[in-house]
Amino acid sequence: MEISVLNKSEQSHMSEAEIVDLLSFALLQEDQSEETEVSVLLTSDEEVHELNRDYRGIDAPTDVLSFALREHSDEALAYEDIPELDDNNLGDIILAMPLVEEQAAEYGNTPQEEMAFLLVHGLLHLLGYDHIEDDDAERMQKREKEILALFESKQA
After folding, report:
1. What is the C-alpha to C-alpha distance for residues 120 and 143, in angstroms, rounded to an integer?
2. Is the N or C terminus of the chain more exposed, i.e. has fewer CB atoms within 10 Å?
3. Distances from the Cα of 145 to the Cα of 118, 132, 151, angstroms
4. What helix, strand, coil percent values describe the chain, rounded to 5?
5. 4-53 tens-digit pLDDT
6. Cα(152)–Cα(156) distance, rounded to whole angstroms?
């Protein structure tokens, strides 16, 4: 797995190695190839707000953005072949680090737990999961919990 991490924030509650370990584990749980690539950007609320506005048309801050480089079919969690794209690169996950801290306090998580959750959440979006419909949201939440629980038990 090739996980690249760029920390433009002064905040991070996971080291680069911890981020790589978590996302590599999650990718293996999702039966992804060893050659899979993902980029992670840790940045400010303002930068994520701008990206959300410019690329999604939503003029509001958010905790995590995922920019997938593949189109996913509605039928399955599989991407369609797009010849001009690098077959191994799934896309980018972008976290608003100050918002991660705020949400951790709000939800009763440690900042590390919140960050891990959002990284897995963002990765699942890159893999085609979504939470627009209730049944899709339930499936995504279940998978997030499974991956994080398996990862925690591996760490123990």
Report:
1. 9
2. C
3. 11, 18, 10
4. 50, 20, 35
5. 999 999 888 899 999 999 999 999 999 999 999 999 999 999 999 999 99
6. 6
Output DSSP code: residue 127: T
Tell me how far apart the alpha carbons of residues 96 and 9 are, in angstroms, rounded to a whole number: 9
Q: Which amino acid is at 153?
A: S
Whole-number Å distance between alpha carbons of 66 and 125: 6
Measure the CA–CA gap between 135 and 56, rounded to whole angstroms.
23
Please name the amino acid found at residue 22: L
**What is the residue type of 94?**
I
CA distances from 98 to 21, 24, 101, 115 (A): 23, 24, 5, 11
DSSP element (H, E) containing 141:
helix 134-155
pLDDT at 82 over 60: no
Q: Which phi-psi region, left, alpha or beta, contains residue 148 (left: φ > 0; alpha: ψ -120 to 50)?
A: alpha
Q: In the structure encoding, which two tokens stand for residue 97, read together?
A: 């680090």
**Integer angstrom CA distances of residue 117 from 16, 26, 34, 78:** 16, 11, 22, 22
6 and 20 in contact (C-beta within 8 Å)?
no
